[in-house]
């Protein structure tokens, strides 16, 4: 007997056997994905391609230095970024919202690396998403 004959016969038996019910997965409904708590968020726009406007959200400012982003700003400068319109507000008790503009040579990868360094590896993988 050839392999193809054996395979075809076995497949036919399995597919027609009443003891092996074929089921499909049921939908989970209207499940909404929720953002993970305790992560650093980063979004940006590029108005006219002249500069990047960033917004960074930090769940606990102690993560990055407890000076409303001062260590983060130092890391940005250390990467050669020219920063203007720096703003930092405390939100939800201990969190912070940091806003700033950066020159076009200070891209999302630079900001991600600076925030990762400021968080001292506690929140690796920060990704800046275009809004």
UniProtKB/TrEMBL annotation:
Keywords: Signal. It comes from the Eukaryota. Residues 1-25 form the signal peptide. This is Uncharacterized protein. It comes from Orbilia ellipsospora.
């Amino acid at each position: 007997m050839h392999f193809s004959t054996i395979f075809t016969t076995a497949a036919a038996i399995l597919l027609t056997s009443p003891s092996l019910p074929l089921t499909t997965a049921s939908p989970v409904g209207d499940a909404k994905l929720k953002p993970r708590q305790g992560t650093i968020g980063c979004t940006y726009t590029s108005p006219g391609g002249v500069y990047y406007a960033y917004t960074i959200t930090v769940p606990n400012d102690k993560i990055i230095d407890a000076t409303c982003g001062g260590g983060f700003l130092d890391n940005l400068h250390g990467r050669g970024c020219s920063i203007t319109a720096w703003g930092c507000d405390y939100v939800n008790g201990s969190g912070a919202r940091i806003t700033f503009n950066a020159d076009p040579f200070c891209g999302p990868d630079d900001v991600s690396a600076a925030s990762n360094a400021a968080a001292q590896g506690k929140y690796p993988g920060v990704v800046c998403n275009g809004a």
